Amino acid sequence: MEIKPIDRLSVATIRSLLIDMINKSNSGHPGMALDITPAMYVLFKNHLVADPKNPNWINRDRFVLSSGHTCALLYSMLHVSGYKVTMDDLKNFRQLHSKTPGHPEVGWTDGVDASAGPLGQGIGQAVGMAMAESAIEASYPNGSEIMNHYTYCLCGDGCLEEGISQEVISFAGLQKFNKLILIYDENVSTLDGPTSNSMNDDVAMRFKSVHWNVIDVPNGEDMAAIDDAIVEAKKSVDAPTVIILHTKIGYGTALEGKNKCHGSPLGKEIGDAAKANYGFNEPEFTVSQEVYDNMAANFGARGAKAYAAYVEAKAAWDKANPEAAETLANAFARNVAPYIAKLDEVALDANNATRNVSGNCVSKVVASIPFTLGGSADVAASVKTEIKGDPGFGPATRNARNVNYGIREFGMATINNGILLHGGFITYGGSFLVFADYFKNAIRMAAIQNLPEIFLLSHDSVAVGEDGPTHEPIEQLAALRTTPNVRVYRPCDSRETVASWKCALEEKSHVSCLILSRQNLPLNENSSEAGVRCGGYTVLENKDANVELIAAGSEVGLAVAVKPLLEEKGYKVKIVSMPCCEIFDEQDASYKASVLNLPRAQRVAIEMAHGATWYKYADHVISYDKYGVSAPASKAIEAIGFTADKVAARILDELK
Amino acid sequence: MEIKPIDRLSVATIRSLLIDMINKSNSGHPGMALDITPAMYVLFKNHLVADPKNPNWINRDRFVLSSGHTCALLYSMLHVSGYKVTMDDLKNFRQLHSKTPGHPEVGWTDGVDASAGPLGQGIGQAVGMAMAESAIEASYPNGSEIMNHYTYCLCGDGCLEEGISQEVISFAGLQKFNKLILIYDENVSTLDGPTSNSMNDDVAMRFKSVHWNVIDVPNGEDMAAIDDAIVEAKKSVDAPTVIILHTKIGYGTALEGKNKCHGSPLGKEIGDAAKANYGFNEPEFTVSQEVYDNMAANFGARGAKAYAAYVEAKAAWDKANPEAAETLANAFARNVAPYIAKLDEVALDANNATRNVSGNCVSKVVASIPFTLGGSADVAASVKTEIKGDPGFGPATRNARNVNYGIREFGMATINNGILLHGGFITYGGSFLVFADYFKNAIRMAAIQNLPEIFLLSHDSVAVGEDGPTHEPIEQLAALRTTPNVRVYRPCDSRETVASWKCALEEKSHVSCLILSRQNLPLNENSSEAGVRCGGYTVLENKDANVELIAAGSEVGLAVAVKPLLEEKGYKVKIVSMPCCEIFDEQDASYKASVLNLPRAQRVAIEMAHGATWYKYADHVISYDKYGVSAPASKAIEAIGFTADKVAARILDELK
């Protein structure tokens, strides 16, 4: 790359824009945004293939800003590159409902491929995108004609200090995702001071230890070297590449090299001086036509040409591969209609663990959908996530469907988020419910991005037994049920499990968590898919009832066992199964009143977990709010007071 | 080390014991336990300095079994080494209330220095122990006379695949904890299959990249090589050491090298064959006297001698350093009585952010306690965790008090857990509330181990403002409040903040989470420390009230602002501040009824977060159960309906 005056002007313009944005909003993070501007510019000008007029083109290069706090730079870049981010949008940085919120929000701003903010997860999302790309290419006939792009990701020190980064770079190295290019901005500063206060990793060696291709760019201002590095990275055939870019935070400002410019506006004085230092002496929010023209002639023209060529090639491919074309369309639309009826063929066992029933759904139905990718964090045999006979996704088997994510729950979730952001697959990830703690924020990031992620979370209560308190979930159900956009299904039997899978597969915008038992649960004769679709419903009607038992999962069977014990004492009992509180809450008032139709004081919720969230539905809550015990399941359940006898006694005491 | 028949017999005995334990309980994890037995034996026989008769001796070597699922080995080892783990205890492996639960539980079984189970965290806890050791040694006169021990940790593939491992090994490398020795069992198998399915890290290079000393032991059966490796590791002067031990899972059994033996009992047939293969042909649960004698003559005698020498040296040190001796005693007893009164000197600002008030508590009171270690995950300036003038803990400043944990929330929490397990310090760790998600399971592990951890969690609501939804907590309060043994304090003003700090410092067995505001909050004229100590209390009494408003944190001030608007409509209003629901729940019924004394239907809880947990106290909950928005705080609050006007309108609507 020969550096011309227009390149310097463009970089200076973008830097000035982001300084103005942050100053105007009096909020934002100029430091790193300024030092990575040249790299971002070179990437957009010379490499990134995307078409602002078709921002959701499935074969565009993906770009993930893992250091989401530097988004003022991304918005400036999108603006000069022709995306629907106007000058007014830039002036409304971080203002209510603007197209330029404080961290990137996918689906809200054209050109933003992933939401970001919580550090490290962007790398995982990028790994997922690269994985989806490679899997689509390998899964369709002449796949490279329809899917063949790079995934770029930009991160800083924070992303690499977070442990999640190690999980996903290790996975990406093993998987040899050669079209994944990570640009690491080593600006030797974090919010609290010099990075050396908290990290002295030999980052190149760290990446080499997980088999990445490493390219060092000693000077982040050297656009030719950056360009060479990206050219070189794109040539990698068997490893992802990290480009280590050495920069100075707040480049060109009076605060260069100082952590003070990380998270605070520069202010007018320092900002103006910096702009002058960049050779930019225009009024605020100025972009000259030649800068727009430069981006249009390079980034814009390249993307438009590539998009047009793709449309043509895709039409030919569709014609040559009509069946595959239909599958691909279904895959990107998440259209499961052609496959979902098969779920009705799953056996409704009279007494089985819901994890096993879920396993049957995986092996009989998920296996029949040609566009799924899923697995578990090394608990496939326990959570029953495996499609039998599948070789496992790997560098030589990129059309395989089972994924061994390793003992990396957080990594698994962020990678699946990336796959869904990319599009083309339904994903699922299995773990023990208690370890939802390890990837809680990735569940949140799925939910905040409206990704229809599916998590299979088994071993759902103290009935885990021998593994003891560290493995027995107590508060996890409450944590998931209170996370917006998450639907927590805790099915009580085979029928509800199959129905939950159906809902999860059909889902377009909510996270689905299927909470599965380790132990066998009896089939309830009145359970129903229609009931699950209402969130909660009556499974044992009693028009004369004066007590309403509300339960989920294994406690529905418990409620059935408790009923005669209460009847012995003269109570008349009705039982409600509540597999999904969030869906129940969305029903209309009359439906809700038809299910919970006794006064609150006559309602009793039963769950072998923390009970706090059940008071929404009942005055009386029979729950277990402490840590569990290590013992065989039946002994553990008895020890914590969840036998039918003990629960009945507690209910009688409550109702007194 | 010259290998003698007794060494082989001891190893065979221990292996046979653990096979018997797992077979008898029909539950457990024999695979890795068997392959690391020689290493565990060499460590205990020749190196570990501890006295079974004084298992809580503060200067003992620490041993953390990060791969907690292999605890059958640890219990066998403790048994033959003279700890209070009887043969009956071994026979009751994983049974209710036995001394040998399914994963190690600290405080329950002598010789268990840390609870374990959730993978990776054991390494973090060991790092914390090594840190505490080095900090005590550096902080007291002639500190090495009272504190001078090693910390050993044993882990497997799972621990290293988890990202948390990277956070803490990076920190330990930077900090040069040379007395930390990690034994990594590379048995090339995980639960789901060969490790190569999910990980091909060059582990030696990975550790070198974070400046560890690496020693490779090619054959895990070679006890002489293991001994040499530990001898060598103990000589390290400026780096922690990892010993990479190459083994075969399920060594010596018919399932050697197969993942099938990871988590399932071997059964009698395979077990008996394995025992014969080890040259051990005794009945089940047999330990010959010579094995006990061997351990007593080596491990036992070494520990007893060291303990006796320590008692003598410590007495002399106490005499020479009476003031330091008192401080040390207070430190290990967590006796804050001599310091706590200073909290009353913290200014009660009429209008200040509670994060700032907390910062004042840190700089004025925490700074005066000579045995604290704390800091933040790179948000010191935002969460106000810094003691001014402190140089920051580092290899050359091990008597410093501020810790830069880096952008490693999970690492921070596990390290602090390790420091508390070790004893000698009060710890605190700061982050944004929303990122409690990143270390939720470490909060749980603190709580499950009854560690009086203090977490400072600021930016506690949508009032975060410009950073937007990824940075705005919604469900985190519910997640923390439902975690057993955790006390969540959400103070409404300066006075409640100081009181919360007081409670947290005095705490002996619960985790304290102080939830702090970014924005200013007004001082409530009736707020009180006594009230905080009851969890909830009336801050605005009204004997004629027909509406009870219940709130916490910033919403107490909001309730005060809402009151006149309700009064305009004829309501008579009382206000309850509920800074800590968990403490309130523990009060006696009469106190609770005196605070919440109207019928549920006349109670309204207000919180700018998910409301699910508030229905325990009120029929009406004014909450915000969706994701937030990016905008300046006042605009964001208005957008989500939390101005006094809008809240009043919602309440009037609810009460209709």
Q: What distinguishing features does this structure have?
A:
homodimer; 656 residues; alpha/beta; six-stranded parallel β-sheet; five-stranded parallel β-sheet; 20 strands
SSE layout:
The structure is a homodimer of 656-residue chains.
Chain A: H1 5-25, H2 30-35, H3 37-47, E1 62-65, H4 71-80, H5 87-91, H6 121-139, E2 151-155, H7 157-161, H8 163-175, E3 180-186, E4 189-190, E5 193-194, H9 203-209, E6 213-217, H10 223-234, E7 241-246, H11 267-277, H12 289-320, H13 322-333, H14 337-340, E8 351-353, H15 354-364, E9 372-376, H16 380-383, E10 402-404, H17 409-422, E11 426-432, H18 440-448, E12 454-458, H19 476-481, E13 486-489, H20 494-506, E14 511-515, E15 520-522, H21 529-533, E16 537-540, E17 547-551, H22 554-568, E18 573-577, H23 581-586, H24 589-595, E19 603-606, E20 620-622, H25 633-639, H26 644-655
Parallel strand pairs in A: 1-2, 2-3, 3-7, 6-7, 9-10, 9-11, 11-12, 12-14, 13-14, 17-18, 17-19, 19-20
Antiparallel strand pairs in A: 4-5, 8-15, 16-18
Helix pairs in contact in A: 1-4, 1-11, 3-10, 3-12, 6-8, 6-17, 8-17, 12-13, 15-20, 17-18, 22-26
